[in-house]
Amino acid sequence: MTTSEEAISFRAGTLRLEGRLWLAPGTEAALITHPHPLYGGEMNNPVVAVLTAVYQRLGYSTLRFNFRGVGASEGVYDDGRGELDDLWAAGEVLKSKGKTVADLAGYSFGVWINLRLDPPMATVRRLALVAPPVAYMDFSAVAPVAAEELAIIVGDQDSFAPLDLLCKQIPLWHPSGRLHVLSGVDHFYQGALDRLANLLETALTGAVESGVC
């Protein structure tokens, strides 16, 4: 966890959610979502921490938060419905701080939530998706992404996000979606967090070529 992040709480309807906020000098912000609440997913997940740290290094304000029913966030898991409201509420927090949600980033379940946000956040110009669980969750209702850019990172040993299924899905999400593959890595990135951080940073700065399906 980045020690300089501020612990905050904010409202999502009648519920109070917890988050960690980092404010950078510029206006651009990244909103970051965590893996599945029913399987231990929360905002301090190591992959979420990597996403947060990379965006901070690149000069973005960041907000990561716990969906309803996770940690100190009130409420209970809502099968992806109320969690959409949680995401909107988190975006409003950044807006209230004078920040623009330029990037919407997520890992696993967080990807599913981010892609199902309808209507999308108008300010988001890029979605950064780590390990979309296309073999585990239903992505059939996902509309084409309105953002300018879509960047996907996946391990080639990820049974939740197999490359063959991703290669079928990505063109439906965005005609120029960029896929970046880490060799020898599964869904949980154990022992590969440094490699993930390096690839994510180069992907976000356009310093690496995307993979080809």
Helix vs. strand class: alpha/beta
Assigned CATH superfamily: Alpha/Beta hydrolase fold, catalytic domain
Q: Spans with pLDDT under 50 lasting ≥5 residues? A: none
What is the straight-line distance between the termini?
34 Å
- What CATH architecture label applies? 3-Layer(aba) Sandwich
Strand content: 15-25%
Number of domains: 1
Order of helices and strands: EEEHEHEHEEHEH
Total beta-strand segments: 8
Radius of gyration: 16 Å
Query: Tell me about the biggest sheet?
Result: 8 strands, mixed
What features would you describe in this structure?
This protein has 213 residues and is of the alpha/beta class. It has one domain: 3-Layer(aba) Sandwich (Rossmann fold), CATH 3.40.50. It is built from five helices and eight strands, in the order E-E-E-H-E-H-E-H-E-E-H-E-H. It has an eight-stranded mixed beta sheet with strand order 1-2-4-3-5-6-7-8, sandwiched between helices. Helix 1 packs parallel to helix 5. It is globular.
